[in-house]
Specification:
Elements lengths: L58 E3 L6 E9 L5 E9 L1 E9 L5 E11 L5 E8 L6 E7 L4 E2 L10 E10 L8 E3 L3 E8 L3 E22 L10 E13 L5 E10 L5 E10 L9 E6 L5 H9 L4 E20 L4 E14 L8 E3 L3 E3 L13 E12 L5 E8 L4 H4 L8 E10 L3 E2 L5 E3 L1 E9 L1 H8 L7 E9 L7 E3 L5 E11 L3 H4 L1
Antiparallel strand pairs: 1-10, 2-9, 3-8, 3-12, 4-7, 4-11, 5-6, 5-8, 5-9, 12-17, 13-16, 13-18, 14-15, 14-17, 18-28, 19-27, 20-27, 21-26, 21-29, 22-23, 22-27, 24-25
């Protein structure tokens, strides 16, 4: 007996553009040509045929039962942050169900376990879509008060997953046609979600800083100052458990319409624990000092500060809520390095006139018996430039007139400004010790009568005028610790008899 063997042949029948009516009958026939001589037949051998019916139809016509299809899809978030849990304060989900030429009605069950309503149930909505081309049903879901807990969480690739199950109605007409380009199109759109609280990993979430404007009153006499260097300091306070980056823009505009803008950035650390907020100080980079000096040199009468905070670094995890805030204060810090003009009408610092107490009417009689009046005291100059100092007593209260309307009743000491040299300066241009000038000036009778005896007025006012000397082409450095200190008294000697004291 010979050995057994297996032989297989495949036959494929192509049926393009063929209309098939049901029921379908397929017959397989075969025969053997036989043999010319006797053979031994092994009864264990056989011939078998297998039919694989693999037909894809472009359409079907007739009656057919209800069908159910299940699909899954997702919406990618527009942020790189990873949200573990988020509590929605405001937001909507819009579901659109459009019938694309399907001849039967369909019910759609839309579900998502990523969205949880206030009762703790996951999102589930049933929608019926009518038969017919472009029949559309729109469902808007207000998710305020809901919670999200996305299942697909990875930095830069977070999705909200949803499922929908379509169940078509059964066809009852022999003429019903369904083609493979028909169906129900389901789309889900999530509008901007506003959260009251989020736990997760934030990554460069942008938070705008509302522009804040500040008017600045700068003496016009300082319009010739030329600053050489300056810097801004940002002082922040917050309880945000994520590291952040601040981008700040300072725009100044002068009364003449000149505009200068400076932008800089800085990093602030994450709040960790404790009752007190975290505090950070950011200083503008040294490379921006010239630009800041240019902004201040235009003597802006208004400054607008704006910017943004980028919260999170894609690594640190924490929780943030809508009551958390980031407080930012912007300071212009010294030292300032600038040049002052030599113009004698510029660089003047004037105190507001203060009322000079002359005492009661009876006490005003006493100055007629003064024999000697001496101004004593000292002036300390802690500036890196010399200053001129004068004392004034006048009967004018308004600052604009007090220092300019100097008639015979005004007292000016000394008649020529007193020069006080600059303080001791180290190699870095910083003042280490003030220069001091002692005062000892005897007034003439005519001078002290201008102060104490004047029948044409009821009130006198006193003030001090300090002028910073010009620096020429050499810039100087002024710090917050620089000052001019003036301490002056009047010593009076007088002769009187008993009648004066009655």
């Amino acid at each position: 007996m010979g050995g057994t063997f297996t032989k297989t042949r495949n036959f494929t029948v192509s049926l393009p553009d063929t209309i098939i009516n049901t029921p379908i009958t397929i017959r397989v026939n075969g025969s053997s040509p036989g043999s010319s001589s006797p053979v031994l037949v092994d009864t264990a051998l056989a011939v078998s045929a297998k039919l694989v019916f693999d037909v894809t139809a472009s359409s079907i016509t007739g009656k057919f039962p209800s069908q159910t299809l299940a699909r899954m899809d997702s919406i990618k978030t527009s942020t790189n942050s990873v949200i573990d849990t988020g509590y929605i304060q405001q937001g909507d989900i819009t579901l659109t169900f459009r019938n694309r030429q399907l001849a039967v009605g369909t019910s759609v069950l839309f579900t998502s376990s990523d969205f949880i309503d206030p009762s703790g149930a996951t999102l589930s909505r049933m929608v019926n879509v009518a038969a017919g081309n472009n029949q559309t049903t729109v469902l808007n879901i207000d998710v305020a008060g809901w919670k999200i807990r996305p299942r697909q969480t990875s930095v830069g690739n977070q999705h909200f997953v949803y499922n929908y199950t379509l169940t078509t109605n059964a066809s009852t007409s022999d003429a019903t046609v369904i083609a493979n380009n028909q169906g129900i199109v389901v789309t889900a759109r999530i509008d901007t979600l506003y959260f009251s609280r989020i736990r997760g990993v934030l990554s460069q979430e942008q938070v705008s800083i509302d522009p804040r404007g500040q008017e600045i009153d700068i003496d016009s006499d300082l319009d010739t100052i030329r600053l050489q260097t300056a810097f801004f300091e940002l002082v922040t306070e917050h309880k945000i458990p994520f590291p952040s980056t601040l981008d700040i823009t300072v725009k100044g505009k002068s009364a003449k319409g000149v505009v200068r803008t400076v932008s800089f950035s800085g990093n602030i650390g994450a709040y960790t624990s404790g009752t007190d907020p975290r505090r950070d100080t950011i200083r503008s980079p040294a490379g921006q000092s010239a630009n800041i000096a240019a902004l201040l040199s235009i003597l802006p009468d208004s400054v607008i500060i704006s910017g943004q905070a980028l919260v999170g670094n894609g690594v640190v995890s924490g929780a943030i809520q809508n009551t958390d805030s980031l407080n930012v204060k912007v300071y212009l810090r010294t030292p300032l390095i600038f040049q002052l003009p030599s113009d004698t009408t510029k660089n003047i610092i004037q105190s507001d006139p203060a009322e000079f107490d002359l005492g009661s009417e009876a006490e005003r009689i006493i100055p007629e018996h003064f024999s000697k009046v001496t101004i004593t005291g000292f002036i300390r100059n802690h500036f890196p430039i010399p200053v001129d100092v004068q004392f004034l007593v006048n009967n004018v209260a308004h600052p604009d007139s007090f220092y300019t309307r100097l008639d015979d009743s005004a007292f000016v000491y000394p008649p020529q400004p007193l020069l006080v040299d600059k303080g001791t300066v180290d190699a870095n241009g910083r003042v280490t010790a003030p220069n001091e000038v002692q005062l000892s000036y005897v007034l003439t009778p005519q001078q002290f009568r201008r102060i104490f005896i004047a029948p044409d007025f009821a009130t006198k006012y006193r003030g001090v005028k300090v002028r910073l000397r010009g620096t020429g082409a050499t810039p100087v450095q002024v710090s917050a610790s620089d000052y001019v200190e003036i301490d002056a008294d009047m010593e009076v000697e007088f002769d009187f008899d008993e009648d004066v004291l009655k």
